[in-house]
């Protein structure tokens, strides 16, 4: 058991990523960490089954990070353990021409979970206050003049906070995870991609462009987390230099959130129980054979 609150960003906390660890010393082997994840999922599986049956609430996990921090691995090795029946995954890249013709939150609609589901966003609407800010790509959208303001990012933080509060108040709970990787480990992983023929397809030259602007990204991340971590939609900054350990922490957060929801199987009324008993009796008697 680990205290996940140490990784949470408190509301209006001034975030300094240099003070946030990218690696935590521990004495666990990869096999031991895998067992911890599997142990968590024995409970998570039960809670997810109740969440799906109850169909009242939903969870949304938004994963953000620089490239090579482990978003894809978290999706493959943690969230893939969930029942596919109640899982929805989406990936958000640069908006296409159709998406640019809508407001920047519009493209989330098709990715949103139904009640009883868990959604995972590989990148998210936060690209519109992180990547868009770094690359100034928001200027490609046909914005009206009153939206082209100097403090557009503060405006968007406010809009996102209101949007996430709206989701919360309707039973859709968003959890935002930033996989915090050191520059040294990112370099190592990018080189591994380049040098391994089986992983060269994962490498993008834009990764190097982003790396050149490392400090710009850190500043934007810090401001974003400080402005948008709330009680109803918190940010967690997860040390990601050790991928196994980071994925264990994500499983702990998932377990914690499902435990908070505390879903239950729907109660069957006495009248329904009578109907079930009658149906069972007919099945035993071969009425439907």
UniProtKB/TrEMBL annotation:
Residues 36-263 form the Polyphosphate kinase-2-related domain. The keyword Phosphoprotein does not apply. InterPro entries: P-loop_NTPase (IPR027417), Polyphosphate_phosphotransfera (IPR016898), PPK2-rel_1 (IPR022300), PPK2-related (IPR022488). Keywords: Kinase, Transferase. Pfam families: PPK2. It comes from the Bacteria. Transmembrane segments: none annotated. NCBIfam families: PPK2_rel_1 (TIGR03709). PANTHER family: POLYPHOSPHATE:AMP PHOSPHOTRANSFERASE, POLYPHOSPHATE:AMP PHOSPHOTRANSFERASE-RELATED. This is Polyphosphate--nucleotide phosphotransferase. It comes from Facklamia lactis.
